[in-house]
Design brief:
- The chain is 29% helix and 29% strand.
- It has 4 helices and 11 strands, in the order H-H-H-E-E-E-E-E-E-E-H-E-E-E-E.
- It has a 6-stranded mixed beta sheet. Strands 1-4-5-6-3 form a 5-stranded mixed beta sheet, with no helix packed on it.
- The protein is elongated, with a radius of gyration of 42 Å.
- This is CCHC-type domain-containing protein.
Amino acid sequence: DFKNYLMHKRKEMPLEDLIVRLRIEEDNRKSEVRANRSDFEAKANLAESSSNKKRKRTSKEKQPQTSTKKFKGNCYNCGKSWHLTKDCRLPKKGKDSAHIAEDKSIPIDLSELDLTVVVQEVNLVNNPREWWVDTGATRHICADRDMFSTYTPTDGRKLFMGNSSTSNVVGTRKVVLKMTSGKDLTLTKVLHVPDIRKNLVSGALLSKAGFRLVFEADKFVMTKNGVFLAKGYLDEGLFKMNVIN
């Protein structure tokens, strides 16, 4: 080998030749390492393949024999007999299909609905000229036609309430509330719904318009840009605004 070659060499070797021979020896050793590694990987793959085949044969032998008896009941998917639901060739009925059926059973055009999820039975008690802040209402709602400063009649619009009922929206426009603070609160796009027994101010719409509502200790304060505008207190589950009737 290269080591013995250097030990028994009698003649002196120039430095350049020694460097060349060292590089050649290094390349030869790298080639041997790669060859040994490839041979080892090939043997390992062969052993693994043989082991996998053996496991597959064992699992096949252990599989229980499927019953050849025919199913005599009805399929829950299509209603026909002699096959299971999992073997049914028709599209499977899932939750989406059920939801579509439920939607088709609603006789109201959803595109004409104004939605509010907060009009509960507590709001169907009386019909005063008082106003209540509802943080869950999606629209301002007024029952009294005389409170509108501008008014446009509407036809066919519906208000979907939290108790799963609907009410007719007969008009819409602007309402101006006189607050006990001396300020005016102008509400736009207010829905006129005569069936509602409480006039509702949407807390969500106020917040979107830049108003700040602070609820604390059964009271609330409304400001905008740091200016005090209104206040109120908790009554019958909602916050009643201090409005000059």
